[in-house]
Write a structure and sequence with these properties.
The chain has helices at about 25-40, 65-80, 100-120, and strands at about 10-15, 15-20, 45-50, 85-90. It is of the alpha+beta class and about 120 residues long. α1 (about 25-40) packs parallel to α2.
């Protein structure tokens, strides 16, 4: 590894791929980048924040578990995103890979589909 990455958290996925955990500062920058793009969206937008981790490796007891780095990402998103009835951030206590997180996404998607279908049919 290059010297500038000394002290970082790594995970060897396989002999060809090694992953590196993002830092608090990197996560803030990522949050700003995503937030700027979310603010450009005019249709209904829901962006989910998985407080239980953003990957399988970012879960309690796993190599990339770093609540401070995740909090930096989520906090920056909340600071940046201009929330409205059309654009919302939704916090979930689950990991992005948990079935409960998936169910929340599906329920939210279905609510948009149902609402739009009812508007088209005049109900």
């Amino acid at each position: 590894m290059p010297e500038k990455y000394r002290g970082r958290t790594f995970y060897q996925h396989n002999p060809q791929v090694t992953l590196m955990r993002t830092t608090v500062e990197e996560n803030r920058a990522i949050g700003r980048w995503i937030g700027e793009r979310l603010n450009q969206m005019t249709g209904p937008v829901r962006f989910f924040l998985p407080e239980g981790g953003v990957s399988m490796l970012d879960a309690p007891g796993q190599p990339f578990w770093d609540p401070e780095a995740d909090a930096a990402l989520f906090g920056e998103l909340e600071r940046m995103v201009l929330q409205s009835s059309q654009r919302r951030l939704i916090r979930s206590r689950h990991n992005i890979n948990d079935p409960e997180f998936t169910e929340l996404l599906v329920q939210t998607f279905r609510s948009f589909h149902t609402t739009r279908r009812h508007r088209r049919s005049g109900e």
